[in-house]
Amino acid sequence: MSLLSLGLVGLTLLVTGLGVLIGETAVSPAELADPASGAGAILFEIRLPRTVAALVVGAALGLAGAVMQGLLRNPLADPGVLGVSAGAGFGAACAITLGLAVVPGAVEGAALAAALATGGMLTVLAARIGAPETLILFGVALSAFLGALTALVFNFSPSPVALAEVFNWLQGSVEARDWPDLARQAPAMLVGAGLCGYAARGLVMLTLGEEAARLSGLPMGRLRAAAVAGAALLTGGAVALAGIVGFVGLVAPHVVRAAAGADPGRILFPSALAGAVMLAAADILARVVPTDVELRLGVVTGLVGAPVFAAIAWRAARSWRG
Question: How far, CA to CA in Å, does 212 sit from each of 73, 87, 218?
Answer without folding.
Answer: 15, 34, 10
